[in-house]
Amino acid sequence: MKFLKSIVMGLAFLTLSACVLGTQTTKQGAVGVERQQLMMVSEQEINTGAIQAYSGILKEAREKKTLNTDPVMVKRIRTVAQRLIPQTRIYRSDAPSWNWEVNLIKSDQLNAWCMPGGKIAFYTGIIQKLNLTDDEIAAIMGHEMAHALREHGRERASQAQLTQVGLAALQAFTGFQGPSMDLAAMAINVTLTLPNSRTHETEADRMGVELAARAGYNPYAAVNVWQKMSKMNGNGTPEILSTHPAHDTRIKDLNKYAKRVEPLYLSAKRN
Question: What is residue 120's three-state secondary structure?
């Protein structure tokens, strides 16, 4: 029996190793993101969960009368999105045709996010308290869109599953499926609850400045955003910054990559 269990577990680890080494979700772009990713959760599962979760969040906001209450602000963020979305093709040819959604939630929170599959929410607090320009909105939105393009949520969900090696082996070799997964809860966890790693944040920063630059938004606006948010630390770390890299390190990296994509910005402005 021990010998059989060893074979099963060994095969499971080989299967998991193949998942670890075999996935590249995006093209490198001008900023050169090329890390291989672990993917055990399917794209369909995570996107289905995101649709369910996003619908639930919008329903709650609608009931509280906090959804899209400022038409001018809604138009601003949707105009930025309309310019950014076509640029996603540089990373994924399928991304411009995703069912993107952009909505505004009235809240004092300094936060914005993008669920898997392109479900975006901006909170009024981050726009009003930081007095964001359109370039700065593009910097934040590009960063959040990059998380979805890079499928960081799906990757984190997969990493969580990797800890359940025994169950994975049981499923793979006996067909036992165990309890069904709450897809909506999974999408909320990987978007709003579980922290992104510094690697994820750095990738999103770099991809975000490229998306903004290609859309004709000043990539250096990303530096302005994080400088503004770092000043908010006197009242506690803003939620959107809670798991991000150290401010000095981040600003140095953003400056470096903003300079790299500056020619793309200048070209977009000429056109």
Answer: strand
